[in-house]
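pls read this protein:
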Amino acid sequence: MSDKTAEQRVLDGQAWADFCDALKDAGKLLDSPKAPQDAFNRAEGYRYLTRMLRAGLESFMESDGADFPVLRCPVHETIKMGADNPDNYYQSASINPDYDYRITGKRGTVDYLGFGTVINRYSTGGGMKTDGFLDSRDMDIGEDGSLDIIVSQREQPGNWLRMGPETNAINVRQTFQDRRNEARAEITLQRIGAEQARPSPLTPAQLDKALQGVTQFLRNTTGLFEGWAEGFLATTNEVAPADQAFCQAIGGDPNIYYFHSAWALAQDEALVIEAADIPECQTWNFVLQNWWMESLDYRYHNVHFNKHTAQYEPDGGVRIVVAHQRPPQANWVETAGHHNGTLCWRWIGAQRHPPVSARVVKFAELSGIDL
């Protein structure tokens, strides 16, 4: 689209009208054949769309793009997507493989810190492919915690994060085991050679392109994850190994082995999840999610456990109980008013990936018996 055409679309309001029409059309997601049709889940679905709209606006409208990238937190307490992990602090930025970049800052004490360059095609429904990956455990870090990483296509001495010819974004995952006592890494990203440059003012063409990008992202990303949730129905109330190649194709961390399933519990039922064999690993993580693959509200409810926060059985295994009310056992995951949704288990940094079992019992059976 020419700059002149975009200018006319902004002047006559067509750019905004198309944006509003596309938003209305995005609401059809909630009518997907297998999506829950009760008022509770539909209300969360509409909220989910507003959250994804905010994510799209931050990414396409407010970002200054690959010329002046800023590592921002796109997924957090009130913007969630694709089985987000409450133990994570996520960061991302747009980059251009024709440029070189530098990441600098302090390592902090967060348990896990990973950097990935990716081909992000969420906005076109194509998922996300990792091009390069760098684990902080394999980096040279100063005695004071300082770090310096070069991001480029050409190999560099020291800490080098590889880009491919199609790389368009960088993702950072910081994974906590103990959020109260661990400090996250404080890092910045800058294009090399642009230290003194400044972004140009917004143009009509940029506005029109951004509005179209937002709605394309909203439609395709929510459709991708809703379809994924429908696929989990075949393993409802199990903890089933996911298709690991697919997980990586949509942006999964190469250090993580994923389990994904659906869950559904009547008011008098509980889901007992048992990992009898805990492998040597950096950490593990379990999260309860709604139908839209959003973690439940961990600000006010206990909806996840990890290697640090769980209580263990005498034999070293771990048992988690998902229930609508507090059970007599430890490791209670609250349903937070939900009766169905999706769930995720992660082995992080493990060489082995043992199975995790699950079974539905009556809540009354949890009292006075040894499971």
Q: What stands out?
A: The two ends are 64 Å apart (CA to CA). The mean pLDDT is 95. Residues 204-232 form the longest helix (29 residues). The longest strand covers residues 112-120.
